[in-house]
Amino acid sequence: MSSAQGFLNDWVESRVGLGSNISNSRNTSVSYNIKGCWIPLTDNGGRRSLGSREEQGSVRCRRDEDRLGWFPPHFDVSDRMARLVASDPVFRKDNRAMLSRKELFKNTLRKAAHAWKRIIELRLSEEEASEMRFYVDEPAFTDLHWGMFVPAIKGQGTEEQQQKWLPLAYKMQIIGCYAQTELGHGSNVQGLETTATFDPESDEFSFIWWPGGLGKVSTHAVVYARLITEGQEHGVHGFIVQLRSLDDHMPLPGITVGDIGMKFGTGAYNTMDNGVLRFDNVRIPRNQMLMRVMRVTREGKCVQSNVPRQLIYGTMVYVRQTIVSDASSALSRAVCIATRYSAVRRQFGPQDGGVETQVIDYKTQQSRLFPLLASAYAFRFVGEWLKWLYLDVTQRLQANDFSTLPEAHACTAGLKSLTTSATADAIEECRKLCGGHGYLSSSGLPELFAVYVPACTYEGDNVVLLLQVARFLMKTVSQLGSGKKPVGTTAYMARAEDLLQSRCSVQKAEDWLKPSVILEAFEARAVRMCVACAQSLSKFQNPEEGFLELSADLVEAAIAHCQLIVVSKFIEKLQQDIPGKGVKQQLQILCYIYALNLLHKHLGDFLSTGCITPKQASLANDHLRSLYSKVRPNAIALVDAFNYTDHFLGSVLGRYDGNVYPKLYEEAWKDPLNDSVVPDGYQEYIRPMLKQQLRNARL
Ligand SMILES: CCCCCCCCCC/C=C\CCCCC/C=C/C(=O)SCCNC(=O)CCNC(=O)[C@H](O)C(C)(C)COP(=O)(O)OP(=O)(O)OC[C@H]1O[C@@H](n2cnc3c(N)ncnc32)[C@H](O)[C@@H]1OP(=O)(O)O
Ligand SMILES: Cc1cc2nc3c(=O)[nH]c(=O)nc-3n(C[C@H](O)[C@H](O)[C@H](O)COP(=O)(O)OP(=O)(O)OC[C@H]3O[C@@H](n4cnc5c(N)ncnc54)[C@H](O)[C@@H]3O)c2cc1C
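Structure tokens predicted for Acyl-coenzyme A oxidase:
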């Protein structure tokens, strides 16, 4: 289910694409659409010249017969929306770092209002609107409105509540946020201190609360609080609360609300008004508690429905799933910048004084960069699969089949954690890969890092989420002997006995080219780490105590399991028909790089569990090195395939035309410090100092 699903049904009568409003000026030649991105295989060794797209006889085009039926096949939509945003001056973003917080925020409001206007004018479909938001590339209150407020009502509201609230939300007649986190509690949702006490006398609730949410815009919030009726507690539930007047935007009586202040970085996530909210005996009608999981009667009695109470956490599952796909986007963007710049940048070179070497040709650069390129593809594929898993669990829930909910929770939590941690680290690595210029704001990388890194914390701290995965894995291991067959992503555990004994068959470097060999090594590692944790846990009398004591090892086991999922989904993807000469081969190389680089980085796990021998590890490393040489000729094509406009990349270093140095120089002059030749403050501070020194010198 998608965030804004259905909003058009209520809102726009017909769906009309942008048609000829946006020109697609690409040249045509052969290229291949890999799940919404084009892989144009170059024939010039990947060293495309630094001219314009036209000069390069550019590599991208649209050939319908090349399109894969993978879902969602949105290349056209994505391409059109990217161009629409790039060509609209309101969506300009190159000045963000120079704006004050107030200017920045007002500009975000302007962009959001303009985007909404365009969505209506052009009658954009839900998919188009969502792509547009992606390319506008600025965190805004609308993310929370569409991404969490609407899904919370859809997932946790009754039919009647949905009918009342969703049309208002779809038309943006109310704007909502997701107010769950408190000053003192974020991870521990059960520990929230906000209470919602039912008062049967007046048929209303009262609240006391402190949330993280939207500080300046939202008129409404889904607030999470512990329900108390008849003096008894009934766990945490969601409540729709109006925060501000729909007439003058003033907070309603009993509500104190504001922004929590500047966050990490300039620009970055400061376009978002994360807020503080205090309730002082605020009263709301009973029917504003979201009652799909539990109903409160007029008399104050609680009636549990047949859906599991974990559904109250359902919005988080939905968002975690979207975050995995977003990780691929952020990572591919950083990698695109670093790869293009690495082809432009030259340092050192032949002793005979010839042209200097492109830094992308250094093996160290390749060994840092190409695994990140491989990860960008890997996360894209696992993100697609996770979307499928989420849709599947949603459909099952509608049919009262709750059996796959624990797995969906474990997968979304684990993959959110794995991909966001890897992406945040990768963006920083890309910055370093660009040397000194990577530290410039105009490289686009500092802001990308600052805006991305909170993804490791929001929607669940990454360690806390891995502990959830570990809990799920320990449960699975404990049930192995009971006849309950593990399914889905834990199906490999059914072969635990074999995997505990298995010996890796690799004898020469090329043996690592067999997907079955790689898979088995990752399965054996994960199973062995999980079983070792389970055995250690069994030595504790109190399992909760054991879990706390062993939590660092449990996190490692959870990571091993999640990495196995990513590797196996990449391998599965390659079993599909992939049209286009050489495309599958390139993806296979990236898949091996992804897996073997992980193996190299986590060698301790593989060796200590006896999954592979030191000799096999060394062969894997030899093979990895040889794979880098195979990626090199197509590295530029593989990042061009992400089809990012220069506007979206927002990076002088990552420019498509490679015209880096003149543009860096040009950018420097745009800084407000260069508005005057002699800086403001010269007369007050510099001149007296200089004069003083002159006087001292004379003395
Ligand atoms: C028109 C224009 C269109 C434009 C479209 C725009 C779309 C925009 C899309 C943008 C999307 C996103 C934007 C991102 C912005 C992000 C902003 C950030 C928001 C937030 O951060 S919100 C707050 C998030 N908070 C958290 O994540 C808190 C983390 N903590 C928890 O989740 C839980 O407390 C916990 C899981 C850590 C522990 O919970 P607890 O109740 O103590 O649980 P346990 O006792 O451990 O477990 C009980 C059992 O429940 C199972 N469980 C736990 N969680 C879930 C779950 N989510 N689902 C299913 N099951 C769950 C757990 O496994 C236990 O099971 P068991 O008893 O063992 O069987
Ligand atoms: C940019 C941003 C946007 C946000 N947007 C929203 C929003 O829209 N709505 C909303 O409700 N919230 C929002 N949040 C809040 C966010 O969801 C929480 O910050 C997040 O869930 C982490 O919780 P916490 O802050 O309590 O961290 P803590 O739990 O206090 O984490 C601190 C440290 O303790 C560790 N830790 C905690 N528990 C355990 C444990 N059981 N075992 C081992 N280690 C543990 C963590 O790993 C971490 O290292 C946002 C946060 C950010 C940064």
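The chain has four domains: 7-144, 174-305, 314-640, 660-699.
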